[in-house]
User: What shape does this take?
Amino acid sequence: MSSAEDAAGRLRDKVLADPALILDDVEVMKALVAADEGRRGKNVVDLRAAAMERLEARLARLESTYNSVVSAAYDNVAGMQQIHRAVLTALDPAERDAFFAALTGPLVAQLSADVLRLLLTRGDVTGPEPLAEAVLATPPGWIDRYLGAGRNRTARGVTLRALATGGEAAIYGKPAAALRSEAALKLDFGPGCGAGLLLLGARDPDQFRPDHGTDLLGFFAAVFERAARPFVR
Assistant: This one.
């Protein structure tokens, strides 16, 4: 027996022992089907090849779906971790100045924003007036008007929207012109305090889109308003 025959025999024995070596290899199966078609001629319809093509297409779709699900899961985990860090940052300050300072510190990056603004309701102002670097006082009703709420419409807890022409300069100051999206978190500081609003401004127009989920931001807003109550009364 020649060396070629001996090698062919060993290959045959290996395939017979484990047919999956061939069946699981798409390229090898394609080559075998093509060789079979050539031997039988072009006028013979090969249903196996057609079935294989359909299975390959289905497998490709399943792989794409799987990759999308895995990617979304990783994004969700990353988003949860960011919000958890932001929650810890909001809960950490023991004094008012330190709490307000956090709005220009680590909270900005932890909330995936470029600028934060906290709006408080005060009865002694006629328009937005600064109380601290990132904190402003606004008159009663101003927050609902800013969110587009009216007599027959109540502002949602979390509003995500585009800022096609930039943010409002009276709120954001110099960074306003560069902002292209915004998350608005309406806050309830309890009786006697009026409404509050935490604004997250971003330069990226896709950072806060209306079709994005708001559960994590809603959770953060609930924690933030409780953490802020001792400092805004």
About this structure: The beta strands are 115-121, 129-132, 135-138, 158-162, 181-188, 195-202.
